[in-house]
Amino acid sequence: MEEVKKVYLKGAALVNEDNFDESVLNKLAGRTVFREERFLLAAIAEVLEISGEAAGFEGAAAGNNADLGIVLGVDTVVDGWKAGFFGEVIEDGPIGASPLAFPYTSPNALAARATIAFKIKGDDITISSGALSFLKAVSYGALLVESGVLEGVIVGGVAEGAAFTTLLSAEPGENYITEVFERRAAGDGLVQISTMAESFAILRDALDEGASHGGSTGLRVSDSAGNMIGMTLACSIGQVVA
Amino acid sequence: MDLDKNNQRQVVVTGLGIVSPLESGHGVDAFWKAALAGRNTVAPAGIIDTEPYVTHAVAEIKGSFASEAGKDRLYERRWQAFIEHAFAEAVADSGVALKAGDGQRAGIVLGTVLAGVAAGEKLWRSGGTELPVGYRLSSGATQLAKDYGIKGPVLTISNACASGTDAIGMAARYIVAGRADLMIAGGGDALSEFAFSGFSSLGALTKDLVRPFDKDRSGLALGEGAAFLVIESKTSAKARGACIYAEVAGYSSAADANHMTGPDRDGRGLASAIGKALKEAGLARVDYISAHGTGTPFNDQMETLAIKTAFPDSAFDIPVSSIKSMIGHSFGAAGAIEAVTCIKAMETSSVPPTVNLETDDPACDLDYVKGQAREVSVDSVLSLSAGFGGQNAALVFTRAD
Question: How far A238 CA sits from the closest chain B CA (Å)?
Fold first, then answer.
């Protein structure tokens, strides 16, 4: 496999019911509708702050995020919203259809909400590829940076009860991606996952491992449908970053 | 290796497949003949019961798709039937031997918004909890990959009404980056009461015909269908002696960052996407624009402004038309169907009309190819999409060397 250009990961934030701080969203313009929407916005605010990029909502207002993109993995989180929306139609007929809820039944609604909140105006992509949706978002985000389409892209995943985000950047940082590929494969050495939330822990553990030991960590993750994704993460602690 | 002016891998189109209300699955040539004839397919719905609603017009696929199975069963797996049919046509048209080894470095990007939501409707009505496999957005691409022996990247994306356009653009980027040599990319969606009730609640549906850019336009009609393009590196296409339709010369996605359902009134996001796609293609103008052209008051005015912003010197000279005037808005399929439209326009040196455009709107003052198809030399085309959440996407195709 040909080595690709380094894509740096800046910050990582996992927000769920246990650590969600609602005050983070005090400066958010507009209302939120769903719990996971709030988790996602809080996770992006945290990552932008950690990474030293435009600081959350203030930076957004100044237009500092306009060149960023977003690639979000969304699997089943909107299914409940869809069922709720159509349940009202079944119950009450056309008058039960809520124009406020309907836009949130589209999987891209969460990424859209993030672009609006943070004034992100680059590529805006929602990937819904089952349990691998989040890792495929990381993969495509890395492609955007390594090919020079974007200098920085928020990548993340939103599952039931949790949102995970990181910032991929061309600017040097501690952790970077040296290899990423997707294919359909089966066999030994693959970690099989059945929900997207499992991939949050896999990526976070790999980043923690790199931070504590340096060197590189390989991921080989598959889903039950036979899709797999491979990635090598490296940490430059103790090394000179080129 | 064949490289473009940016010293990147050239990406070309070698296969087309389509299912739309215009030809009901009888192939790209039948689609194109009907499109140039300006045939309207918007009519009262048959597949869904619109009686409780105040609007009733949809663009529905009929013919063999409506008779091969019982109506209830067909309703639930209509989406799968469309994508399977269009995918098979595109693969056959390209001549690629996926199962004989070409699938090793091939992948799929499928754009869809609703996927198997019709199967979900049945479940929700029954009070059940176990969603059927065909309901999930990822199910279609995964099944196609299994059926055709595709071993490369397999993605399903859902970028609202820009999904089909983004799918093709993303697939091209996978090839440019060297992650695959060949991708089958496009989109598909089917009519459902779920979508009808949602768009009805937003007041976005017309009681009339679809009249893009008309002063009296009153909204969109929901449609359905699927389309796929086989795209591959030029080196790969030449090596296997494939017929090359066009080059994928530029693509961009851009967000309005403005509103959950309405577009930026000035079209800034779409203009940004057009500008970046043109820059990638190394072009200052194009010979034809396939508009998003939904027939809603805000979209058509926004799109007109975006085109004027992106083409300050030539906007009034470029033919612009909306095939949605004939086939309504097919969500994830729309951008892919319009990509096929663009490529056929180049191949046949003809552009389809915007039908039902009768009363000029001072706010929509470009050349919309009113009423009748036009013969015109087309060496470069631009396909535009926009969607809920401020999604914008632009694709540029050029005539291959």
Answer: 30
